[in-house]
Design brief:
The complex is a heterodimer of chains A (about 475) and B (about 325). By secondary structure, chain A is mainly α. Chain A has two domains: about 160 residues, no CATH class; about 290 residues, no CATH class. Chain A is built from 20 helices and no strands. Chain A is globular. Chain B has about 325 residues and is an alpha/beta fold. Helices cover about 50% and strands about 5% of the residues of chain B. Chain B has a five-stranded parallel beta sheet with strand order 2-1-3-4-5, sandwiched between helices. Chain B is globular, with a radius of gyration of 21 Å. The chains are: A mainly alpha (about 475), B alpha/beta (about 325). The interface between A and B is medium-sized, with 21 and 22 residues.
Chain lengths: ~475, ~325
């Protein structure tokens, strides 16, 4: 049951309706049943893996808290098992290893177990949970059902946002009684659908044409493809997060915000504070800061090592392909450069008028991120190398603007496809300009219905309905 | 809160129903949409040319009229399979005088199923027609599931439809009655060589086997049955193709024989023009199967002459 399917919206409406007949303190039971039902319907194998992993983590947490003597060993063993299972999942999934073909040919239905939906997301949360207990920053949960709900909560299960157990379980036990949360939730869900169907999915064909077209494209179209993909990825993933956050709000639960208008970042480090916030917080809390703290006597070098390890692991988390490795190396370079030139850039920002410095920084940051995403999106290293070479080639590959640029992005030179392409750019541009206002939740008395009505109308008139259910980040 | 939600849903329903009517109205006003044009005003041609892109860009009714003296209309649409052809013919016959002849392009590619499709969005304004609806159910079940929901028949493929609706508004406001291509023929302007040959040879260096696709053949049969039911004389034909490509179509003779047998079973003629001189030179083609303006002029003359000869021999009076 995907987020963008009629069954999901029916499920959400029925669940929301039912929950309002239950006392607030009893709602968690309904949420647990619904979440397990939701995952089981999606993939029964994934449900079994989730239950096993959750119970393993729950009892490991108890053991770490109770057993003073062996706690370090239990902790290390538990983390090792979780990391190894994550590695195994990525390794089997990776096409380059060819393992999934081998298993398939041998008659094993690995997809039921190893392709467990949401595994990479809840495994990180489980590691975070036991780490908090190990360092005595949190108490272990007492009720395994609470913990199971934390792992399985349907709104965040398949692609986050990543949450911390104590914070979320407290909300399950005591959901907000504020009715305005329901309005906010509906608005976020509608906003998410709009972002996905009207913006991300309309950009997808143009991006696919650039990344899958093969050789012989000009540098202009390659740059445009990388930029459009970055924007598509943002709308696609933030749409997912909006629907997750909105769906949770309907039940009085507030999830962590995952994006904060990242294209306004003036540096790559700021970009990472605004993009996939929950994942980066996880990496910061459990990899970067502990590492920098341990190496603190090496001062600057500690930061560089922290960046190196964090982003290599982040690249690995996204996939085992060489393209993800290069993507993470690029971000390591960007962040190390920024760390080393911090003072120079600070001085420059003081001497250059903000009106010039800020837009220039935003543009440079955006282009750097787009450049790295060339490797993130490329299906394999051969295509990535070819796209990279194209960047240094002729602007339109010896063709005119129409044939060498516009018709590739638009899918032809006909009036109809050009109309669609320009319309997409207008919708995307318009949204980015108005995003700040659109993200502000409204109350019924303050134009809530008008705005929601307007967005829903746009979804029907300009949305992509065919194949709309696929979200890019669900592959991770 | 529930009152507000119900009010919101009610208003949304009204809006969607309104949008549906608006789209229906203006799509029918768009005279550049063949389906809308032939259903909104009488074309009343003596001869119809039908098929996917090839006849669309090759069969010139004006030349046919010049040489054969019969008024023609090119009813072909881009990348259309036989089912879409049938839908177009149905719409045409519902609103026009029955033509005397139907020239239907049938070749190894058109019975394969991999090259042409049923473009459901071409019929979004005609979904209320039971014939069209049944056809959509068979050809595009995913789309069919949505067509009865308010506005979804237009929303589902909106990126193919919205532009046509906007164009319909323009035509409605300006009172335009004549399409940009009045007789349905689209001359291949500006295309010199589309590299399809090179792509095909690169993809299939040892050649490709074409499929005798049963669902395509079934759709073809259904199309012939519709035409026969209206008493239209049918001719299946294959236009010239570039000789260079023939060695790469491995089972071309086998498929051609099957088409010939199919034609014989249906008692309709099957004309093949692949031995014409122009097939030897790229100067008359812009693609493997498509002649350019120069090639089309030669082919249309040959086609009309052949037609006249056959009429004189009475072979078309079946």
């Amino acid at each position: 049951m995907h987020f963008l399917s009629v069954p999901f919206f029916c499920f959400l409406a029925v669940a929301g309706f039912l929950s309002h007949f239950l006392p607030y303190k009893q709602r968690w039971k309904l949420l647990l049943i619904l979440s397990l039902f939701y995952i089981g319907l999606w993939n029964p194998g994934a449900l079994l893996v989730l239950i096993f992993s959750s119970l393993f983590t729950f009892y490991t947490g108890l053991l770490i808290a109770q057993n003073r003597k062996f706690r370090v060993w239990v902790y290390l063993l538990s983390v090792t098992i979780q990391v190894l299972s994550l590695f195994l999942l990525k390794y089997v999934e990776s096409e380059s290893t060819g393992l999934h073909f081998l298993f398939h040919e041998a008659g094993f239905r690995l997809d039921l177990i190893l392709y467990a939906v949401g595994f990479s997301f809840y495994t990180l949360q489980h590691i975070g949970y036991i780490t908090e207990i190990y360092y005595s920053r949190a108490e272990p949960e007492k009720n395994p059902l609470d913990f199971l709900l934390f792992s399985s909560f349907f709104a965040k299960f398949s692609s986050g946002p990543l949450e911390q157990a104590p914070k979320l379980i407290a909300q399950f036990r005591n959901p907000s009684a504020d009715l305005t949360l329901i309005y906010e939730g509906i608005q976020r869900v509608v906003l998410g659908i709009f972002k996905k169907m009207v913006l991300a999915d309309r950009l997808a064909p143009s991006v696919a044409r650039v990344f899958e077209a093969g050789q012989g494209q000009g540098s202009a179209v390659t740059v445009a493809g990388a930029c459009l993909f970055t924007v598509q990825l943002y709308f696609d993933f933030s749409a997912y997060s909006d629907i997750a956050i909105g769906a949770a709000k309907i039940f009085g639960i507030s999830l962590t915000e995952n994006f904060d208008r990242p294209f306004l970042s003036t540096s790559v480090s700021e970009f990472w504070r605004r993009w996939h916030i929950s994942l980066i917080s996880w990496f910061s809390n459990y990899i970067y800061y502990p590492l920098v703290f341990r190496l603190r006597r090496y001062k600057g070098t500690a930061v560089l090592v922290g960046i190196l390890v964090t982003f290599l692991l982040s690249g690995f988390w996204h996939g085992l392909g060489f393209t993800f490795f290069i993507w993470s190396l690029l971000h390591i370079c960007f962040l190390c450069f920024e760390s080393l030139t911090k003072n120079i850039r600070l001085n420059a920002s003081r001497s250059i008028p903000a009106l010039i410095y800020k837009p220039f920084s935003i543009l440079i940051t955006f282009l750097l991120v787009c450049f790295s995403n060339l490797f993130f999106r490329a299906p394999d290293i051969t295509v990535a190398k070819q796209l990279f070479r194209q960047l240094y080639g002729p602007l339109f590959q010896g063709k005119g603007f129409m044939e060498g640029f516009l018709s590739i992005l638009a899918g032809g030179g006909y009036q109809e496809v050009l109309f669609n392409f320009y319309l997409t750019l207008m919708l995307v541009g318009g949204f980015l300009i108005l995003e700040k206002h659109l993200l502000k939740p409204l109350l019924p008395s303050r134009g809530l219905f008008l705005r929601t009505f307007f967005l829903v109308t746009l979804i029907f008139v300009f949305g992509v309905f065919k194949h709309a259910e696929y979200f890019i980040y669900q592959q991770f | 809160m529930y009152k507000r939600i119900i009010l919101f849903i009610a208003l949304l329903l009204v809006l969607l129903l309104g949008l549906e009517k608006l789209y229906d109205h203006f799509l029918l006003k768009n005279v550049d949409l063949k389906s809308s044009f032939v259903t909104s005003q009488p074309v009343n041609a003596d001869v119809l040319f039908l098929g996917p892109c090839e006849p669309l860009w090759m069969m010139n009714p004006a030349l046919f009229q010049k040489y054969a003296g019969l008024k023609g209309f090119n009813l072909s649409t881009v990348h259309a399979n036989f089912a879409e052809n049938e839908g177009m013919l149905h719409l045409y016959l519902e609103h026009n005088k029955t033509p005397q002849y139907l020239f239907l392009y049938v070749t190894t590619e058109s019975v394969d199923g991999a090259f042409n499709v049923f473009n459901s969005y071409s019929f979004s304004q005609f979904v209320s027609d039971p014939f069209i609806k049944k056809m959509i159910e068979a050809q595009d079940p995913q789309y069919y599931r949505w067509v009865d929901w308010p506005f979804m028949k237009h929303a589902y493929y909106n990126s193919f439809i919205t532009f046509n609706m906007v164009q319909g508004i323009k035509h409605g406001l300006t009172g335009r009655m004549i399409p940009y291509y009045p007789d349905g023929y689209v001359p291949p302007h500006g295309i010199t060589w589309d590299m399809r040959y090179e792509h095909f040879v690169k993809e299939f260096p040892l050649g490709r086997h074409f499929e005798w696709n049963t669902s395509e053949v079934k759709a073809l049969q259904s199309l012939l049955d519709l035409a026969k039911a209206h008493g239209i004389k049918i001719v299946l034909y294959e236009s010239p193709m570039l000789n260079e490509i023939k060695p790469f179509i491995l089972n071309r003779d086998e498929i051609k024989q099957k088409i010939a047998k199919f034609a014989m079973q249906n008692k309709v003629p099957y004309w093949v023009f692949d031995t014409m001189q122009i097939s030897n030179t790229r100067s008359c083609f812009f693609s493997i199967l498509n002649t350019n303006n120069k090639g089309s002029a030669i082919f249309n003359k040959t086609f009309a002459d052949y037609f006249l000869r056959e009429v004189r021999r009475d072979s078309l009076l079946h």
